[in-house]
Amino acid sequence: MTNKKGLKFYDNLDLSKTQNEDDLMNVYQKWAADYDDDNDNLLGTVSQPMSVQILQEYVKNKELKIIDVGCGTGLVGRELERAGFVNFDGIDISKEMIDIAKRRGYSNLFIGSLNNKLPFTDGEYDAALCVGVFTHGHIGSDRLDELVRIVKPGGIICFTINEGVYASYGFNSKIKRLESEHVWKVIELRKNDYMVKKNVKGFYCIVEVQ
Ligand SMILES: C[S@@+](CC[C@H](N)C(=O)[O-])C[C@H]1O[C@@H](n2cnc3c(N)ncnc32)[C@H](O)[C@@H]1O
Does the C-beta of 24 come closer than 6 Å to ligand 1? Predict the structure, then answer.
C-alpha cells in the first residue's frame, strides 16, 4: 500500500522513535499488510530462514514443542514448517500481524507481550525462537529472563539482535552475565547478515538453558 506520494508505510517509519507498546502496536497494525513484501523487497531480511537453519543444528527432534516469541506474520513459522517441525506456537502483541500468521502452521497463536509475564508455565517449551524482536524501540535485554523461564532446562533458545542495539541495549553484558550465573550456556554467538538490502548485520545467539 502506498500513500499519495507513492511512499510505502515503511519509508516513513523510524522505529527508534517508538516510546511504548501502544506506539509499537500502532506501527504493526499499519504495517501488517505490507510487512512480508517489505521484508523481502525493501529490507532483504534473512533472519527468519537463518535462525531456523541454526536451530535445526541443535534441535533434531521435529516434534519438540517450540514457541516463536514476537512471531509477527509468521515468517519464522513458515520456515519451521518447511523444515518439518510440527509442534510450534506463536505469540505477539499485534493482532493484525497474528491474523496473517494464522495460515503458517502454528498449533496455537496467542496475543501477549514479552514485557509482561507470558501466559506459559515455567519450562513449558523445549525451545524458543525470538527473531527480529530485539531491535530499535522494541524490547530490552532484561526480558531475556522471561524467555529462559518458559524453556525447560536443557532446552534451546535462538534469538537475534539487531547490531544497532547490541551494545546500547546491554545485550553483550546480559548474555555474558546469564552465562556466568549458570542460567544458560552460550552455544553460539555469531554476527551475520540480517537485513541485506539495508546493509544491517545482526547477532544470532543460541543458548542452552541450564
Ligand atoms: C520486526 S517484527 C519480527 C516478526 C517476526 N518474528 C519476523 O521475524 O518476521 C517484530 C515483532 O515483534 C512484535 N513485538 C514487539 N514488541 C513485542 C512485545 N513486547 N511482545 C511480543 N511481541 C512484540 C511486533 O508486534 C512484531 O510482530
Answer: yes
